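Input/output pair, single chain:
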Amino acid sequence: MIYLDSAATSFRKPESVRRAMDGALARLSSPGRGGYPAAMRAADMCWLCRESAGGMFGCEPMSVVFTSNATHGLNIAINSVVPRGGRVVVSGYEHNAVTRPLAARSAIISVASAPLFDNAAILERFRRLLPGADACVCTHVSNVFGWILPIYEIAGMCADYGVPLVVDASQSAGTLPVDMRSLGARFAAMPGHKGLHGPQGTGLLLCSGEAEPLICGGTGSMSASPNMPDFLPDRLEAGTHNMPGIAGLKAGLDFVKRLTPERILRHEQRLRARLERELNAMPGLEVFGGGGAAQAGVLSVRSSALDSEVIAERLGRRGVAVRAGLHCAPLAHESEGTLRGGTVRFSFSPFNSEAEIMRTSQIMRDILIKS
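Output:
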């Protein structure tokens, strides 16, 4: 299989991730539940994972909170900073993991819409909308089109206007700099199973301020109190930890550090650019490229002759795994006029090769010719 759906989940994992998860099942119990060796090893693993993430993302280890995915973290962040009925500024490229929690809080959403890859336009739009806002929630990279938004400039504006910022780093963690100290963001949420190459069911929420828990329960600390602890990470980590997942995530973080996010990004951008050139030569195919350095390893296309879902199904039958449709991001499709029918999305990982890109191009050509 040629797997080109890493924006959903990085399917091929480093071997070290599998070994770490197997080892956790054999050697780790739960942290904070006892002083015996298996519990202490679990506590050590949690600390090592937090420490590794803190070093990569510019924050203190104890401000690294384990979540089940980025959506979980974004819900915590939004519930912590957005008052019910408050006004929130978002980009025109947000995922439902942002827009649905905002809708659940009856937020008034101001959309900083701008043409694809136009940094100047989107910054001007944010500049107009941020004054007086209660919060800003912004994706770092569009999961549909791969646009790397100017998040550090947006963060600077949020600081100027005193607006708390929540960053959705779902598509950037592991390939782009996400530095909490430089961003000054209140929160940044990311999954473990995409660019960090950990297992599904893992995620991180980086915190630089007070946070409200979504769920309450046991933490192994302050057990006599009827309330959740008032300190991180315990305040946000009710219940038993996913130790195989945390061990796997630690191994994924180590893998990314060895390769370096910079090398991973260059590799994925190189593959994206090669596929973009090949697809641009195919008649009747609209390719949402041209972003250059402002476009990550994600490429969307649509055909004037075939529905996106049909193309994806035919690619799948010939061994190429992609995603088609709205990609849980209807706002992004509204921004680019692709809401009807969506797009076919190709997304890459360090494990993809140029040979796979050329094979995919040939299969796409065959599919379009036979349409």
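The first strand starts at residue 2 and ends at 3. Residues 15-259 form a domain with the Aspartate Aminotransferase; domain 2 fold (CATH 3.40.640.10).
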